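User: Run a structure prediction on this.
Assistant: Running it now.
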Amino acid sequence: MNIYKIFILSFLLAPFCSISQVKNNSINFSIGYGINTYSMGSLNHFYVDSFAMKSGIDLLQSYVKKGDEFYLSFSFQLNNHFDIGINGSYQYGKSNSKPIFTESDDYGFPIKDHCGSFELRTEAVSVGISGTWYIDALLKWQEKETTLNKLHFGVEVNGGIGFSKAIIDMRYPTIPEGYFYEFFTSKDFQGQLGIKAEYDIIQSPIFTTLGIRLGYQYFRTKPLINRNEITWEINNEKINLDFSGFYFGTYLKIGK
């Protein structure tokens, strides 16, 4: 964990060591969407397995194993090799179902079936700093008049803090008292390390670039607490969220 943080910090500070090489400074804005895989071992094992999938309750039929991510960033390109900036993201994953509650009379005979909804949702908002080392600059493609000078490849690192939440939401529209809502929160370090590939659609006067990114995210939280600051425990096991896993996404970058 500490090694991961030190590596990211070192990578993000590296561009300032070569700031004297600045040639064409530029500011750019990126917006993108991606899909992330999650670990969520604690949540899936101690909550879903031992409660939500328990025989006789059957509130859920699947784990929280992946999620969607929306992100944006503002970056300053120091030179042909590095850019650095700030980024933010919102990611979420969920498992849901439509449980049936059968209402019975005083003698145990069924009267009416009530269809409800149950959702277990995990989400996180992250903010931090980001940096990219463009490997293609070492190949000096930009000095040649070919289609290759529109291609860019880089190693990206993002590091910051993530504010996470787990939400349990159960509703029965036909039963006013059949409603339950609770949420638990935590925060911790969030980091990503990956590679990216870009292609310039427009290079002048305002460049527009399409890109893809692929890598690994580390984001494991401390034990979750509710609004009364009580730790969420099931069978004496503390529950935490683990968004760690691989990510893949696309993005659009615009700058000048």
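The chain has a mean pLDDT of 85.
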